[in-house]
TrEMBL record:
<dbReference type="InterPro" id="IPR003616">
    <property type="entry name" value="Post-SET_dom"/>
</dbReference>
<dbReference type="GO" id="GO:0032259">
    <property type="term" value="P:methylation"/>
</dbReference>
<feature type="compositionally biased region" description="Basic and acidic residues">
    <location>
        <begin position="65"/>
        <end position="88"/>
    </location>
</feature>
<feature type="region of interest" description="Disordered">
    <location>
        <begin position="61"/>
        <end position="162"/>
    </location>
</feature>
<keyword id="KW-0808">Transferase</keyword>
<keyword id="KW-0862">Zinc</keyword>
<keyword id="KW-0479">Metal-binding</keyword>
<dbReference type="GO" id="GO:0005694">
    <property type="term" value="C:chromosome"/>
</dbReference>
<feature type="compositionally biased region" description="Acidic residues">
    <location>
        <begin position="89"/>
        <end position="101"/>
    </location>
</feature>
<dbReference type="InterPro" id="IPR043017">
    <property type="entry name" value="WIYLD_dom_sf"/>
</dbReference>
<dbReference type="GO" id="GO:0005634">
    <property type="term" value="C:nucleus"/>
</dbReference>
<dbReference type="InterPro" id="IPR018848">
    <property type="entry name" value="WIYLD_domain"/>
</dbReference>
<feature type="domain" description="Post-SET">
    <location>
        <begin position="712"/>
        <end position="728"/>
    </location>
</feature>
<keyword id="KW-0156">Chromatin regulator</keyword>
<dbReference type="InterPro" id="IPR046341">
    <property type="entry name" value="SET_dom_sf"/>
</dbReference>
<keyword id="KW-0539">Nucleus</keyword>
<dbReference type="InterPro" id="IPR001214">
    <property type="entry name" value="SET_dom"/>
</dbReference>
Amino acid sequence: MAPNAHVKKAFRAMNALGIEDKQVKPVLKELLSLYDKNWELIAEDNYRALADAIFDAQETQATQERNELEKKAECSGSEPDRGKKARESDEEDEDALDELEPPLKRLRRRGEGGSSSGLNSPDLGSHSLDEPTTIHGGDTAPILLPFHPLSNENDPNAGAPIVPKDERFADMPFSSTHQDSVEIGNSSAAISEMENTNGHVEVGETVNTVDGASTNGVPPTITERSSEHKLVATVAESSALELASSHTGEVKINLSFAPATGGSSRHLPSMEELRRAMEERCLRSYKILDPNFSVGRFMDDICSCYLELATKAENSANQSPENLPFLTKNVDALKKSVATMAFASNGSSDLATKAINSSNLSPENLPFVNETAVTMDFTSEGSNDENGEVGDTMGLVVVPECQISADDWRLISGVSDVTLGRETVEIPWVNEVNSKVPPAFRYMPQSVVYRDAEVKFTLMNISDDQCCSSCCGDCLAPSMSCRCATALSGFAYTVDGILQKDFLEECVSEARDPKKQVVQFCKECPFEKAKTEEVVEPCKGHLKRKVIKECWIGCGCVGRCGNRVVQQGIHNKLQVFYTPDGRGWGVRSLEKLPKGAFVCEFAGEILTITELFQRRSEKQTSPVILDAYWGSEQGSGVNEALCLDGTQYGNISRFINHRCGDANLIEIPVHVENMDLHYYHVAFFTTREIDAMEELTWDYGVEFNDHVFPTLPFHCRCGSDSCRNVMQISSEKTKKSKKKKKA
Ligand SMILES: C[S@@+](CC[C@H](N)C(=O)[O-])C[C@H]1O[C@@H](n2cnc3c(N)ncnc32)[C@H](O)[C@@H]1O
C-alpha cells in the first residue's frame, strides 16, 4: 500500500532536517498511537512534536551507548599512566559524544550550516557562529515557540480536556481528606516567587547621549549612565561579559553580576560556555529546532534592531518615545515605574504606553536572572543631566526594584515553566480561554515545615526495622527480602515503577467503596479540639488507608531501586491549563499514562492543625489533612496532628481539580524518610489508563452539605455522574418541595 499523504509529508519535513526515514518511522508510529492518529497535533509547528520525539529517542540511545562505553572503559581500565589515559579518554569521550549527538544538535552547537526558513527549507552549510556577527535581514530562522495545543476552527476540541472516562462506584462515601478552596487568580494576596526575584533585578536600558569625545578611553563594555539606580556600577564591573554587539559596535549587550549579590567573586563563564549552555536550553525549553538558530546571532540581531529603531528615531523630527525599544511590553509595570514618570515629565506618558505595546522585543530571551543585570548600551547625541534624570530627548529608563507585580512579571518574562526549573521536568502552562496567568505562589517540589510541626528526619530516628540495610542493588529483585517492603504487606510497586494491580484496586475500593472502608475515631479529635469551641464535638471519623514504605538513605539498595518511586519526583509530561468550564486552572497529562502510574505528590507547607486554624482567619488555605492514622492507638499530640497547605507554597498538585467519586487519580500515603505515623507524603497515582491531553483529577473528599471548615464550598462542576454536589442540590430540592406540599 502506498504511504498516505500525511506520512509522506511527515517524512519530507524530517528529511528536510537531515533525519532519515528509518529514524522517522518507528518514532512516528509511536507518536501516531500516542496521539490517537491526530495528524493535526503531529503536524503542528512544522512537525515539532515528531522532531522532538526523534531527538529524544536519539538522546536516549546516545546515553545508553555512552553508558556502555563508560562501563567497558571502567572494566578494562589499567593502573599505569592513569593521568594520560584519563586525558585521552576525556578527549575520546568528547568525540564519541559528538558522534552520538543528533546531527541537528551538532550542527547547531558548532554553528555549521542551518536552514534559512525553519523546518520546511533547511539550508545546511550557511553561517557559522564564529563568523563575524554581521548577519541581518531576512535570513534569520523562525523561532518555534513552545508547544501549546490550541483549539482550531476545524477541531474546536483540540486542546480541550478529554472528559475522564467513568469508573463509577455506587454511593459515594465520606473521605477524610479535605481540600479547601483556593481563590482563583487572587495573586495579589499570595507571595510570588517572581516578585521575590524581581526584588533583585535591575532591568534597564540606557540611551546615553554622550558624544564621541566623552566616550574616549571608556572600554566598550562599560555603560555610561548616572542613574541613582546604580546600573553604572553593575555594568562597570570588570567581570562584565560582552554578549553581543551591533555591526558597527554602537550597541552592545553586556552581562554582569550585580555587586550586591557578591557576584564579583564568582567564576565568569566564557562566551563559549554560555553560548553552549543557552543553545542546549533553547533546544530543551523552547524547542528551537532550526539548525540555523544561534544564540549569538540572536543577540546580535537585538543590537541591530535596537540600532535601527534608534536611528529611525534620530532621523525623525521629534524623537518620539514610540520608537524607544522597551524591555517590557507590559503597560501596568511601567505605569508604576520611573519610566512613566520620565515620560510624564515630558508630557508623553501615553506615548510611553504605546511604545510599550508596540515593542516586539521578547524579554524571555534576555538573561533576566535575579543576580544579573542586563544593560543596553547606545551612544548618540544629546545629554543626560548629572543626576541621571531624564532629559528632553531619549532618557534612561529603569524599572526600579519591587515595582512590578507578580502578574506583570510573569507577563513580561513569559515564564512558561510553572516549576521555575525546580522539578526535573518542566511543566508549562497554557491558557486558551482568556488572558489570565496562573496565580502567584512559590513553587516547591517538597513539603517544608512552616513552624511548629514536629517532623524530624534524623538518622537517629530511622530504626533498623524502618530500612533495609542488608539489601543491595534493587530491592525488587526476586532474591531480596527487603525490610521496607516486609514492614508492610509486600511491595507496592512493580518493576515497571507502577503500582501493583491488587494494591491499587484495594486502595481505590478502600477510599470509595463504603463496604470496604475502615473509619477510625479519635478519643479526642485534634481537629475538633482546634476549633476551640466551648464544647469539643466528637470525632467525625478518619479513613484508614493502605500506605507505602519506600527505601531511603538508611537502606543498602541503590538510588534506582524499584522501591523508590515517589522520591524520584515527577517524570511525566504535564501541563497546567485553564479549564473552559469555570473550574479555573487544572492539570492535564500531555502523554498517555498507564494505570497505577505515579504522577506527583501533594507538596505544601507542613502545618499543625492549630496553625491551620490560626491561618484560616487570615488567608485562604488549601489543606490536605494527614489523618491516615488518626483514631488508631497512637494518639496525636498538639504538634503532631498535621496537614499540608499548598496555597502559598506548593507544587503542581495545587492546580489539580476535584472530581466526585470517579477521579482518575487517587492519593496514597507514602512513607519515605521513616515510618512516623504523623507525617507522610501524599502521592497521586492514576486509577486507570490516562489518555494524552486528559485532565487529571482527584476526589478532595469534600461533602457539599458540610459547610464546616476546612471545606470552603464551591459549586462543583466535575461533571461526574456521581457528583455529590448535584445529588445534594437535588435532595435539598426534594426536601423543599415536600415541605411545601405539607404546608
Ligand atoms: C486546589 S484548587 C485547584 C486549582 C484551581 N482550579 C485554580 O485555578 O487554582 C481548588 C479550587 O479549584 C476549584 N475547583 C476545583 N475543582 C472544581 C470542580 N470540580 N468544580 C468547580 N470548581 C472546582 C475550586 O474553586 C476550588 O476551590
